[in-house]
Amino acid sequence: MASATQKARRAREAAPDAAFDLWLDRGLNNMFGKLAEDPIPPELIALIETSRKDS
Amino acid sequence: MSLKPPHVGSPETLNRGIASPGVPTTDFHDLMMAALSSLRQQALALTRNRSDADDLVQTAVANALAAKNSFEPGTNFRAWMGSILRNRFLSDCRRRRPAASIEDAPPTSLARSGGQEESLAMKELQRHLARLPADQRLLLMMISVQGVSYEDASAQMGIPVGTLKARVSRTRAQLRSWILGEAPARPLLKGARPRGRLDLKLAPEAGRTPQADREFHGRWLT
Questions:
Q1: Is the ipTM of this complex over 0.85?
Q2: Which residue in A52, B44, B119, B176 is a FRET match for A46, CA 20 to 30 A apart?
Q3: Which domain holds residue B142?
Q4: What is the CATH number for B198?
Q5: Does A2 reach chain B within 8 Å, measured CB to CB?
Q6: B50/B56 Cα distance (integer angstroms)
Q7: Pick from A44, A41, A38: which is nearest to B29 by CA?
Q8: Best B8, B13, B31, B32 residue to mutate vs chain A (most A CBs within 10 Å)
């Protein structure tokens, strides 16, 4: 079982990782997340609707 | 594995890529509509180029529509469709570069900024994301941005859940190592390329099951 000192050291080591993970997640959301709000290209919708009508 | 039934929005909200709350649907075309935004994100993660991403989605959707009779109603549509998208990307890469080593298309800006300049940090992140194998980038985006469960990602990519969790953890550690300039205790990613070059095996054609894609190249240590 880990000692209190070992646990404290692990907690200190984990803090910068957690900060980086938060920064990384924000960066990834900045790059990819907003694309979900963009309008879908009309030609893509037309492709699906044409298939629906032909079904 | 569980997947919330997708909801279909009104034509207006569909055009904005937003599904409004509604009655769960099992109609194939409705499922496709509801998945488009997610597919565009995944395509961008693979191609790192918006124009190529739109082309990839268009082709993958056309392939899926042609193969719609092979989809079993009630099963995981997004995993099925995501697999088609991923296989299409791999086929396109192989077609562009018949040799074993391929090079990713030059990336356009991934980050959206309010002004002319992007932050240096975002540019740095973009540069290092480009060094990752495409599948790794896709997985990281699916888990971190789309909130896809590891179970659903496993269904889509044909890779065990435990392996995916380890890969995501190592990907984050690798990016941290590159961006913060820290030397890892041991090599993290054997397949990462200095300039974003990829070595890919040809994946099965679109429509094949995710299980058939176990050989996708990533050179993971485990």
A1: no
A2: B44
A3: 11-213
A4: 1.20.140.160
A5: no
A6: 10
A7: A44
A8: B32
